[in-house]
Specification:
Elements (H helix, E strand, L loop, with lengths): L1 E11 L3 H12 L4 E5 L6 H6 L1 H19 L15 H26 L2 E11 L2 E6 L6 E10 L3 E3 L12 E2 L1 H4 L8 E5 L3 H12 L3 E5 L12 H13 L3 E3 L2 E9 L2 E8 L5 E6 L1 E4 L3 E3 L6 H4 L22 E3 L10 H17 L11 E3 L4 E6 L2 H6 L4 E7 L4 H5 L6 E7 L5 E8 L2 H13 L4 H5 L18 H12 L6
Parallel strand pairs: 1-2, 1-5, 2-3, 5-16, 7-14, 8-9, 8-14, 9-10
Antiparallel strand pairs: 3-4, 4-5, 6-15, 11-12, 12-13, 17-18, 18-21, 19-20, 20-21
Helix pairs in contact: 1-4, 1-9, 3-4, 3-6
Bound molecules: flavin-adenine dinucleotide and nicotinamide-adenine-dinucleotide.
The site of flavin-adenine dinucleotide has 36 residues, from helix 1, strand 2, helix 2, helix 3 and strand 3.
Length: 481
Amino acid sequence: ASEAEEHDVVVIGGGPGGYVAAIKAAQEGLKTACVEKRGTLGGTCLNVGCIPSKSLLNNSHIYHQILHDVENRGIDVGDVKLNLTQMMKAKEQSVSGLTKGIEYLFKKNGVDYVKGTGTIAGEHEIEVNPLDGGEPQTLRARNIIIATGSEATPFPGLEIDEKRIVTSTGAIALTEVPEKMVVIGGGIIGLEMGSVWSRLGSEVTVVEYLGAIGGPGMDAEMAKTMQRILQKQGMKFKLNTKVMGGDVEPNNIKVNVESAEGGKSEAIDADVVLVAIGRRPYTANLGLENVGIEVDERGRIVIDQEYRTKIPHIRVIGDVTFGAMLAHKAEEEGIAAVEYIKKGYGHVNYGAIPSVMYTHPEAAWVGQTEQEVKAAGKAYSLGSFPFSANSRAKTNLDTEGMVKFITDKETDRILGIHIIGPNAGEMIAEGVLAMEYGASSEDIGRTSHEWAVLTLSKAHPTLSEAFKEAAMAAFSKPIHA
Ligand code: FAD
Ligand code: NAD
């Protein structure tokens, strides 16, 4: 190994958690290196996750809308054809622009970008096997931040080839539109990627073990509404259904399913099967055993509230440890972990981390679901407002969904906000801010939302009016519904 180099912080993994931690550490004046084995920065999110999936979601939505939703708007179009190769190129362009952007930010902030696989060899040592196959290099670090992320959970008996039996990584790179797609798991990946291929022409069947779609964390009422909307768009759902296995034939895959309550079984034909049953922490070749760092029964690296493993100067953030597997959660932890190193304190409000599902309409939420509040035995109030009564949504002919507030019955403090609707992913930011500041629904209901009521008069019409009216519904009455 080459001579050891001393850094204040070495980050292992260059995803949203790791690259943000590295930039923040450098900004704090710490000598910082980031080790990444992929060959590009940005991790799962930029390379094979958030960014490519959102590119395909956006462009497949435009295609679908042109096919099915422009004539009634007074736009006649000629022959509409899908150019999948170009749609994939557009996706690749977004990915490469953004991943190179992180490389630029590393240079700008003085982060050493080390391309290779990092293995913790000792409490202060990381051995790096370079990507280009050269001599291993040893980095010495006062502090180590592990941000090695996650990988798709495999389905036993269905071997992933990323062509016919795919994870999300194969599903963002198919070279033709499958006639029939079976999606195992009706969580966020299943519904986002299922939407993409359904819009592009596949017959998509989602098989979900539980009685509701949306994965953990989605409000039950919202999950039902979303299922109805996606069904109208052509997706099929088999809930309470177990996948038993599959028979891979030369021109067909038979997915064998059985009712979760036992009994009835059937085979569903597919050209492509998407396995989307969750993701698991990724710690291969990380060398945790060399320093005795523990993982729990689900493979998550065990940490305390300050992100420390039992070796206090080795901290862990993002998908590879506890909590929601979301890019912005990993980023917030990256900043907080560096603040602990530099200043001795840091903070992430886990009660105010939003989730967004980028279907059309989008679903977005923050805080608790109604079923969680109910289970906690708390007295609560509800306020909801449908987009069908919102003038901007009506003007846009895009009226599906609603905004729902859940508040503490006694204090009116907001416990959760759930939105299905156009731009829900942007609108939820306002809910996050409200929850961060401990707002009540009345605080929001009495704030001017771009129309003349109670306070200042601003421009109308906007979708955010529905947000305000749902808050009004929680503490008194909305005007327009
Ligand atoms: P990762 O992004 O997984 O990064 C870890 C990095 O570490 C990887 O690049 C890996 O190569 C590297 N690495 C691992 N081990 C080593 C090692 N030993 N040495 C060197 N490098 C190593 N989240 C959202 O918030 N919004 C979305 O819209 C969204 N969409 C998604 C869509 C899909 C299809 C998928 C799969 C995920 C999506 N996510 C989304 C989740 C999001 O991608 C993750 O939560 C996020 O990437 C986690 O960041 P991370 O830094 O913890 O790990
Ligand atoms: P998920 O946990 O959201 O959903 C998995 C679903 O599969 C669940 O509904 C579960 O009940 C079901 N399931 C599990 N085993 C099954 C089985 N054997 N048969 C049938 N159904 C089964 O996981 P995901 O959709 O794979 O996504 C992984 C992670 O990536 C999530 O944590 C998610 O937050 C993140 N992600 C986020 C976004 C976003 O923020 N927009 C997008 C994609 C992925």
